[in-house]
Design goal:
The radius of gyration is 17 Å and the shape is globular. Strand 2 and strand 3 form a beta hairpin. Helix 2 packs antiparallel against helix 3 and helix 5 crosses helix 7. The strands form two sheets. It has a four-stranded antiparallel beta sheet with strand order 1-4-2-3. A two-stranded antiparallel sheet has the order 5-6. About 50% of the residues lie in helices and about 10% in strands.
Length: about 210
């Protein structure tokens, strides 16, 4: 596996609810069956594939599913990319003592549903961001963690170059993590905080529900 330290040059909004390039893994030589290992904690290929398929299934059930599938492209690599960024956010939150309760998430979800015209509206919006319905709470929790981190380091709406300040925070956090990525998914680029390259034959975007995965 390629062993590189990652960075996270992304604001809260860009990280989880848009602005993330939609990309798509993986038995490695060093860690068979692992898509990646973060500080010794394995992210299994099966977990990545299951999460990617949950998104694809949700897209197929959407009225605009065909268009969404074409727009998102290779989901497994995007999914692993997203999961690695979640680890960076979790670590940053831990370092700053930011904690989010289940009630916080429920209240945030209720507010988002109201803004999006109800539960179905929120689900439709999240599917557009490649978030399956069963992972909406996880995504909202990440958003709240990022907001909490911003508050902890003194970043607000009027902070000059707020995104740059947040970027530096995530860069510092990510460099403290040992991220080992299976090369079939690509290479975890330190400066881009993104998987680049890769040889995995990703899910076929045009596959119908009746065809085998």
């Amino acid at each position: 596996m390629h062993r590189r330290r990652s960075a996270l040059p992304l604001s809260a909004a860009a990280l989880l609810l848009g602005g993330v390039p939609l990309l798509t893994g993986c038995g490695g030589e060093t860690h068979p069956g692992a898509a990646a290992v973060v500080d010794g904690d394995r992210i299994e290929v099966s977990s990545v594939q299951a999460r990617a398929e949950a998104v694809r299934d949700a897209q197929r059930s959407d009225p605009n599913g065909g268009q969404l599938i074409q727009q998102t492209g290779p989901l497994p690599r995007y999914t692993l990319n997203y999961m690695l960024r979640e680890r960076v956010v979790e670590e940053s939150a831990r370092r700053h003592g930011v904690e989010i309760t289940r009630r916080d998430v429920q209240e945030h979800r209720a507010a988002q549903e109201k803004q999006r015209g109800g539960p179905k509206g929120l689900e439709a919006f999240m599917i557009q961001q490649s978030i399956a319905p069963e992972h909406i709470d996880d995504a909202l929790r990440m958003q709240l963690l990022i907001d909490g981190i911003a508050k902890a380091i003194g970043v607000g709406p009027r902070t000059p170059n707020a995104d740059d300040v947040m970027n530096r925070e995530f860069v510092e956090t990510a460099r403290s993590l040992d991220i080992d990525v299976n090369p079939r998914y690509g290479e975890w680029d330190v400066d881009l905080v993104s998987l680049i390259g890769g040889t995995e034959p990703w899910i076929n975007p045009a596959r119908t529900p009746q065809e085998p995965a």
